[in-house]
Amino acid sequence: MRPSGRKTDMMRAVSFERNVSKHAEGSCLVKFGDTHVLCTASLEERVPPWLRNGGKGWVTAEYGMLPRSTGDRMRREASAGKQGGRTLEIQRLIGRSLRAVVDLEALGERQITVDCDVIQADGGTRTASITGAWIALYDCLKWMEQRSMIKLDRVLKDHVAAISCGVFAGQAVIDLDYLEDSAAETDANFVMTGSGGIVEIQGTAEGAPFSEAQLLELMALAKAGIADLVAKQKETVAGPQQ
């Protein structure tokens, strides 16, 4: 039995709330159970120096956890003077995931930065961030299309979403919360597109190595979960912005 009482293939309740930031071109508050992340997409009419005059745009991400997003207050990384390795790794993952579904040439020489700020953490913050970031990016691109800056269907090639899976108490389970994640025998994160393409798989054995059969079992759970997340993304963006 999972601590939450969920079945092995049952995700936590997932919700998306769009247009939660007055100033951002795109924004989304994503909730995977008790993990809540605010994603905001900001447009700049410039690209990094190494991309100037190259005819391509750029999509990047920043990630952070608020001081009381966890049980004990964490010190802000800004006050420490540098970002931690985990933070850098996660924000690079988010950026890679978004760029996998964007035509950077069609975007033009512009940069979109998606900021993912964890308000409340209960496991799966990186997967919730990627899934919510896609909606914030979509709304930013929609904002641009409404101003005749781009054609949305030329720039955004597909959906992208992510989910965690793992082996807990000897069973393959999907969407680990903190209690499961902290005690899992194997922990994995899957990032996939709406058409089923694999963007990234991160898998780690916390104790004994996991088998190929277990990996395939986790993959099957992830594919089903991501298909559900993409369906929720489509339903969300099909409706009017709040």
From TrEMBL:
<keyword id="KW-0548">Nucleotidyltransferase</keyword>
<dbReference type="GO" id="GO:0000049">
    <property type="term" value="F:tRNA binding"/>
</dbReference>
<feature type="binding site">
    <location>
        <begin position="124"/>
        <end position="126"/>
    </location>
    <ligand>
        <name>phosphate</name>
    </ligand>
</feature>
<keyword id="KW-0808">Transferase</keyword>
<dbReference type="GO" id="GO:0008033">
    <property type="term" value="P:tRNA processing"/>
</dbReference>
<dbReference type="InterPro" id="IPR020568">
    <property type="entry name" value="Ribosomal_Su5_D2-typ_SF"/>
</dbReference>
<keyword id="KW-0698">rRNA processing</keyword>
<dbReference type="GO" id="GO:0009022">
    <property type="term" value="F:tRNA nucleotidyltransferase activity"/>
</dbReference>
<dbReference type="InterPro" id="IPR027408">
    <property type="entry name" value="PNPase/RNase_PH_dom_sf"/>
</dbReference>
<feature type="domain" description="Exoribonuclease phosphorolytic">
    <location>
        <begin position="11"/>
        <end position="140"/>
    </location>
</feature>
<dbReference type="InterPro" id="IPR018336">
    <property type="entry name" value="RNase_PH_CS"/>
</dbReference>
<protein>
    <recommendedName>
        <fullName>Ribonuclease PH</fullName>
        <ecNumber>2.7.7.56</ecNumber>
    </recommendedName>
</protein>
<dbReference type="GO" id="GO:0000175">
    <property type="term" value="F:3'-5'-RNA exonuclease activity"/>
</dbReference>
<dbReference type="Pfam" id="PF01138">
    <property type="entry name" value="RNase_PH"/>
</dbReference>
<keyword id="KW-0820">tRNA-binding</keyword>
<dbReference type="InterPro" id="IPR001247">
    <property type="entry name" value="ExoRNase_PH_dom1"/>
</dbReference>
<keyword id="KW-0819">tRNA processing</keyword>
<comment type="function">
    <text>Phosphorolytic 3'-5' exoribonuclease that plays an important role in tRNA 3'-end maturation. Removes nucleotide residues following the 3'-CCA terminus of tRNAs; can also add nucleotides to the ends of RNA molecules by using nucleoside diphosphates as substrates, but this may not be physiologically important. Probably plays a role in initiation of 16S rRNA degradation (leading to ribosome degradation) during starvation.</text>
</comment>
<feature type="binding site">
    <location>
        <position position="86"/>
    </location>
    <ligand>
        <name>phosphate</name>
    </ligand>
</feature>
<keyword id="KW-0694">RNA-binding</keyword>
<dbReference type="GO" id="GO:0016075">
    <property type="term" value="P:rRNA catabolic process"/>
</dbReference>
<dbReference type="GO" id="GO:0031125">
    <property type="term" value="P:rRNA 3'-end processing"/>
</dbReference>
<dbReference type="InterPro" id="IPR002381">
    <property type="entry name" value="RNase_PH_bac-type"/>
</dbReference>
<dbReference type="InterPro" id="IPR015847">
    <property type="entry name" value="ExoRNase_PH_dom2"/>
</dbReference>
<dbReference type="InterPro" id="IPR050080">
    <property type="entry name" value="RNase_PH"/>
</dbReference>
<comment type="subunit">
    <text>Homohexameric ring arranged as a trimer of dimers.</text>
</comment>
<dbReference type="Pfam" id="PF03725">
    <property type="entry name" value="RNase_PH_C"/>
</dbReference>
<comment type="similarity">
    <text>Belongs to the RNase PH family.</text>
</comment>
<feature type="domain" description="Exoribonuclease phosphorolytic">
    <location>
        <begin position="160"/>
        <end position="224"/>
    </location>
</feature>
<dbReference type="InterPro" id="IPR036345">
    <property type="entry name" value="ExoRNase_PH_dom2_sf"/>
</dbReference>
